[in-house]
Write a structure and sequence with these properties.
- The structure is a single chain.
- A 3-stranded parallel beta sheet has the order 1-2-3, with helices on both faces.
- The protein has 3 domains: 118 residues, P-loop containing nucleotide triphosphate hydrolases (Rossmann fold), CATH 3.40.50; 41 residues; 112 residues, Zinc Finger, Delta Prime, domain 3 (Up-down Bundle), CATH 1.20.272.
- It is mainly α and 282 residues long.
- The longest helix has 19 residues.
Amino acid sequence: GKRTLARYIAKTILCAGKDNDMQPCGRCRPCRSFDEGANPNFRLIRNETQNILISQIRELIDDISIRPAEGRKVYLIEDADLMTTQAQNCLLKTLEEPPEYGVIFLTTSVYESLLPTVRSRVAQLRLKPYSVMEIMTIAHEKGIDLSGKEYLVGLSGGIPGRVFGLAADKSFEENRNKVMSFVFEGNMFSRLELNRFLSGNRDAFRSCLDILESVYRDVLLVQCSAGDGLINSDKQDNIIKYAKEFSPVDIMEKIKGIRDIRKNLKRHMNYQLAVDMLTLAV
């Protein structure tokens, strides 16, 4: 995925023994230290809390102002859409006029969430998601068994790192079962059950939002007679039944409700209020 590609390019830039084909040699000191996570000219910036903070960007700016003893410096900001507005504004001048030895990569799954002023200062490379067969092939090569879990590919947007992360997440199946009960049982007990579960499991909230939105997306596909592209194909019978009970307008309103909750959480909406809105109002 994008993180793997960004790291590979970073390693290539830092490599001191590149061949003419511009591939990292894997043998030189910069390559070895990069693989060990100890290359002094590479810095990874990711969210330490819910967001990437302005203090982290200031540290990047301070570091990039110091010329390396040799070679170049590379910075990778993962999930750059998690930067606060202040952090993005702080980065603008450095993005526009980086030193000749400095390279900054930003990865994001939500490019449009970046400020227009940031987007105007970067070159965008959009990666296409992997197909189910491609993901299954990669998983087989890595010794990961995804049999019966093809829905992970759709939920992960065809991004290998996310697929394998979900496959290794022991709590994911519990999250998914809770959401499926919430949708398909559709009674007050199942609503309260999910409410209690999420109230005590904040880390599961984003995963449950993704699963719930994927179910409603599948319902819309069935209503539009396009059932071949279901993410949750193992729940096809339940989805078909549910699609008959609601209109497309109803489903679109539910999806809008989920997206409103996502947006309001970014604006520091109270977490318990978000749980209540999801389980009792959407």
